[in-house]
Amino acid sequence: MNNDLKKILNYLNEKRGFDFSGYRTPMIERRFKHRFALTKCKNFKSYLTYLKNNPSELDNLISALTINVSRFFRDTLVFEYIADKVIPAIIHQKKQKNDPSLRIWSAGCAMGEEPYTIAILIQDFFKKEAQYFQVNIFATDIEKKILKKAEKAVYPLESIEGVKYRLLNKYFTTKENLFHLIPEIKNLVSFSVYDILDRKISTPSESIYGDFDLVFCRNVLIYFDSEHQDQIFDKLYRALAKSGYLVLGEAEIPSRKYQRYFQRVNECCHIYRKI
Ligand SMILES: C[S@@+](CC[C@H](N)C(=O)[O-])C[C@H]1O[C@@H](n2cnc3c(N)ncnc32)[C@H](O)[C@@H]1O
Q1: 251 CA → ligand 1 middle, Å
Q2: Which pLDDT score is estimated for 19?
Q3: Which of 5, 82, 163, 262 is the most buried (most CB within 10 A)?
C-alpha cells in the first residue's frame, strides 16, 4: 500500500476511529480517485493536505469509502427463499423447543433497507399464521450518519422498486413522492453503530449477547482483504445460534478457512447454515 495512502488511513483512524486498513487496496484506490477528481487533488499527498485543511472532507471521504448502496428486497430470489423456507424452518424449530424468540442481525445495514425487508417478511408471516413471537432485529453499520436516515425510514422510489405492490400498500404510506415505512415495521428494528472489525465487542452491544437465528452480512465482505474476511467470519460464526442461518451477498462466499463451518442451503442463493 502506498505510504501516503497509509498516512491518510491513519489520519482517518485518529480523527474518527475508523480503521480502513483491512479494506482491499484496489477498492480503496478507486474510491480515492473519485474524491481526487471532486477536490482537484492530484495524488494521495496533496489530498492529505487538503483533508487537513478542510475537516468537512472527512465525512465525504468516509461516505465514499463505505458505499451505502442498498434497496428493499435486493436480490429478490434470496428474500423469496427466506420467506418460503428459512422463516418457516426457524419458527418450526423454535416451536419444538418452546422458544418464542427470534433474533436477527443485519451487519452493514446501510439505510435500513435490508433489516426492514426482513421485518416486513416476518410481520407478514406472523399475520398469516396468527402467532406470537418476540422478534428482535438488530441492525448495525459503521457509519453513524446513515443510521440516522435509517431510523427515519423514508425512501425514494429507487429504494422500493423491488417491493411487491401488496406489501408496498400494506407497509408504506406515500407523501411527496417519498415512501414512509409504517411504525409497526419500524419498531421491530433497532439500529446502532458497530464496526464489524471491532475486536473488543463480539456482537452489537444493544443485542447483549449473540445467539442469532439469522444473520445478514451482505455486500460488506467484498471490501475486505482475506485476513479481515477471516476475522469477520469468525465473528459471524460465534454470533450465530446452533444451526443458525447466514445470508451473504451474491458475490460472497465464506473465506477458505471458514468453508467447513458453513453449509450452503441451496444452489440459487448465498444462504448458509452454521455446522
Ligand atoms: C453496500 S452496503 C450493503 C448494504 C446491505 N447489506 C445490502 O446488501 O444491500 C455496505 C455497508 O457496509 C457498511 N460497512 C462498511 N464497512 C463496515 C464495517 N467495518 N463495519 C460495519 N459496517 C461497515 C457500509 O457503511 C455500508 O452501509
Answers
A1: 14
A2: 83
A3: 82
From 18, 219, 220, the mutation candidate for ligand 1 (largest count of ligand atoms within 8 A of CB) is 220
Predicted pLDDT at 209: 83
* DSSP state for residue 171 in the 8-state scheme: H
- pLDDT number for residue 1: 74
Rounded to whole angstroms, the Cα distance separating 241 from 49 reads 47
Q: What is the pTM assigned to this prediction?
A: 0.92
Among 12, 141, 158, 252, residue to substitute to test ligand 1 (most atoms within 8 Å of Cβ): 141
From the list 270, 272, 207, 214, the residue with the least C-alpha distance to 241 is: 214
128 Cα: distance to centroid of ligand 1 (angstroms): 32
Cell of 149: 436516515
> In this structure, which residue's CA is closest to atom 15 in ligand 1?
66
Give the pLDDT of residue 211: 93
d(CA 29, CA 2): 10
Collect the ranges in the chain with pLDDT lower than 50: none
Sheet containing strand 101-107, strands side by side:
189-193, 134-141, 101-107, 212-217, 240-248, 271-274, 262-264
d(CA 62, CA 57): 9
Taking only the tens place, the pLDDT of each residue in 43-94 is 999 999 999 999 999 989 988 988 889 999 999 999 999 999 999 999 999 9
Query: Can you point out the beta strands (E) in the chain?
Result: 101-107, 134-141, 154-155, 172-175, 178-181, 189-193, 212-217, 240-248, 262-264, 271-274
61 CA to centre of ligand 1 in angstroms? 15
